[in-house]
Amino acid sequence: MKRAVALPAVPPDAAEAARLAALDECAVLDTPPEPAFDGIVQLAARLCATPIALVSLVAEQRQWFKARIGLEVRETPIGQAVCAHAIRGEGVLVIPDLAADPRTADNPLVTGARGMRFYAGAPLRNRAGQALGTLCVIDLVPRPGGLTADQEFALQALAGQVMALLELRGAAQDRGRLAVAASRAKAAASQRAARSEAERRLALEAETRARIAQEAGGIGTFEMAVGSGRMQVSAEFCRLFGLAERPGYDAAVLEQLVLPADRARRSSAASRSDGSAEGDVEYRIHRADDGALRWLSRRAVFQRDEAGRVVAMFGTVHDITERKLDQIRLAATVALGDALRDAGTAAEVAQAATTTLGEALGALRAGYAEFDLRAGTALLQQDWVAPEAAGTASLAGRRSIAGFPGLVAQLSAGQVAVMADREASAIPAADRAGFAAIGVSAQVTVPLRQRGELTAALFVQDGQPRRWSQGEIDFARGVADRCHAALERLRGEAVQAVLNQELSHRLKNSLAMVQAIAAQTLRGVTPRAPVEALESRIQALGAAHAVLLQEQWRAASLDAVAEQVAGLIGQRDRLCIQGPAVSLGPRCAQGVSLLLHELGTNALKYGALSRDEGRVALRWTVRGAGAAAELVVTWQESGGPPVTPPAQRGFGSMLIGRGLVGEGGTRLDFLPGGLQVELVAPLDEVQAI
User: Fold this and answer.
1) Cis peptide bond N-terminal to 642, omega within 30
2) For residue 488, how many other CB atoms are within 10 A of its CB?
3) What is the distance between the alpha carbons of residues 394 and 438, in angstroms, rounded to a whole number?
């Protein structure tokens, strides 16, 4: 049985005596619970995700809890006080596993039935630097990772709030005592006034420290009276929402700043009243002062009265815009790359770019316009409009650019045009009127130029003033660059297609001329079999060329090549062609066309196709995966005469023996049922360009 180990006795030196005197001066021990302190422990437990949180004051023989959550007892003996260790240090004391720490391993609070296993405590220090106690959080399971940096910062900030409340409480008590003493001794008035002023400065400094801590972490705090919807807010809270600094606001004022699409995520009067509102939510706002789009994370807990009714809501608000936008832009950039790669027309490119730009920036409208500066017009092929912007008209169509002289001048000079507020921006009056006519208050337009001349632009617009961040401007520029590259690719492919058609026409003429010369030259040659073989092989080359041309000489489908050869030998109805989709590189496609033509010609002369009942099955499959993948092609004849290996090895036999990529991999079996050929080659070599 483990025994409790008492802490070493604290020497009754002057420092300890002064600390205990300072604690007594607060006059807080054994006082009733107070909502302000209760709200802080609830918030600390929520932020640090622990079942227990305490405001612990360390006296001479005990530790007493001014506020507590998750623990029934009001105090414990000093020998069981982990907080007595925490007040001896400077910063937050974190003990990941109380059972493993020699200072606390034998503590009854650790070894008991409901053993505590994790502890983190921030000292409550007064102006003199004396630690009166701690704000601590406790878990019933070990936490090897301790607290996150944000949680530790929040715990320290909340400890500062506790100390500020204690000092304000003491100041209030002192003021009361001074008021009573004023009626008894007027002679001490000056002394009491001096003390009151000192205490006022102390309270002000405590409030200032709390404010600096909130600003440093970008964390605003609030307390809402659920019944009225009235909120007490910190200065940092006002800054995050772009509101004038005031001690309080109605919840309805803040709800109007939330984007319509995100309002369902926020709490409502009904969900706050019944306590069903989510504690952790993320939503977007347009900041009140400059219209900037910001992402906020809100965390909150409810306070209930003795009857269980929700009476208050305590929480924090944190700006997470940069983290959220980085995630959104990264996902949008990846999706845009996929869409532009698959786009086959300029309209599809414009649609992908405008949709990505508008959705990622949460804008009113995004569009792509092609300029004709000589005609003074711009053609908007299409634009994207926010789905929730009911009544916002599309700008698609041909429009005059005469109403936007300043914008056109900027774009023509190759500058990105950025407007945060139509009424406050230094733009020509004509531009201001033009933007007003289409309901635009803020916009970013990125020019696309060719040979130094403005040809097109990609734009994003909003219906209210908005301060565009550099990240948003850079994102718009990146989308425009990708859009421009995709359009250039389509133009290049169109030019290449014309060149391919011209080359095809000339190559067909050359092959026809070669065939005619061969026929003319070899007219008197006997026997005719070699001559006919030469002519058919020239035709096979032409068939492979035709298939490659359809794919712009990048690749040819094995199925298409097989169909072309079957058509050349005129036996399509007697060939069974079957296999998965496989692309052949240009070199392989021509070789396979000649090889299949050779097999088909031999089958017509000597094999299965020489008889009416003969058939040929041409099948292929891919065997293996990754770098080890192989293409396996089989040619199986049936219903023909008996076949035997050729007595002499001619060009055809050599061609078949070279296989699919000219490096072998061919097996010929002269079976009683007919010839069987198996051709095997690495898939990456088959598809090589």
Assistant:
1) no
2) 12
3) 10
Contact 282, 297 (CB under 8 A): yes
Pairing of strands 248-250, 280-286: unpaired
Strand pairing category for 583-584 and 630-638: unpaired
Edge-to-edge order in the sheet of strand 280-286: 248-250, 230-233, 219-225, 310-319, 293-304, 280-286
pLDDT reported for residue 5 = 44
Distance CA 557, CA 374 (A): 46
In what order do the strands lie in the sheet containing 377-385?
A: 397-400, 377-385, 365-372, 453-462, 442-450, 417-419
Strand order in the sheet with 615-623: 575-578, 615-623, 630-638, 674-682, 666-671
What type of residue is 581? Answer: A
Distance, in Å, from the CA atom of 44 to the CA atom of 29, rounded to the nearest integer, reads 21
The amino acid present at 193, given as its one-letter code, is: A
Which pLDDT belongs to residue 350? 86
Strand, coil or helix: what is 417?
strand
Q: What is the pLDDT of residue 31?
A: 92
- What are the φ and ψ backbone dihedral angles of 279, each rounded to 5 degrees? -75, -40
Angstrom distance (rounded) from CA 317 to CA 4? 43
Phi and psi at residue 645, in whole multiples of 5°?
-60, 145
Task: Tell me how far apart the alpha carbons of residues 39 and 301 are, in angstroms, rounded to a whole number.
Answer: 8
pLDDT by residue (tens digit) across 213-253?
555 557 889 999 988 989 999 888 998 999 999 989 998 88
pLDDT at 445: 95
pLDDT given at position 504: 57
Question: What is the residue-wise DSSP string for 466-505?
Answer: ----HHHHHHHHHHHHHHHHHHHHHHHHHHHHHHHHHHHH
Return d(Cα 223, Cα 314) in angstroms, integer: 5
Q: Could you tell me if 82 and 110 are in contact, meaning their C-beta atoms sit under 8 angstroms apart?
A: no
Which letter does DSSP use for residue 33 in this model?
P
Q: Contact 569/597 with Cβ under 8 angstroms?
A: yes
Q: Which of 248, 237, 175 is nearest to 210 (CA)?
A: 237
Distance, in Å, from the CA atom of 303 to the CA atom of 566, rounded to the nearest integer, reads 82
CB 301 within 8 A of CB 315: yes
CA proximity to 582, closest of 658, 655, 684, 676: 684
pLDDT lower than 70: segments of the chain? 1-12, 174, 176-190, 193, 198, 203-217, 495-555, 651-652, 664, 689
- The Cα–Cα gap between 53 and 125 comes to 18
Select from 213, 96, 98 the least CA-distant residue to 143: 96
- 602 and 643 in contact (C-beta within 8 Å)? no
State how far the Cα of 475 lies from the Cα of 328, in Å rounded to an integer: 11
CB of 207 closer than 8 Å to CB of 236 = no
Cα–Cα distance measured from residue 15 to residue 391, given in angstroms and rounded to the nearest whole number: 72
Contact (CB, 8 A) for 40 and 67: yes
Q: Are 598 and 605 in contact (CB under 8 A)?
A: no
Question: Smallest Cα–Cα separation from 689: which of 484, 523, 552, 510?
Answer: 552
Distance (Å, rounded) from C-alpha 54 to C-alpha 155? 11
pTM given for the model: 0.44
CA distance linking residue 358 with residue 52, whole number of Å: 46
Average pLDDT of the chain to the nearest whole number: 83
Closest CA to 349 of 456, 474, 497, 471: 456
pLDDT of residue 533: 58
- Three-class SS of residue 626? helix
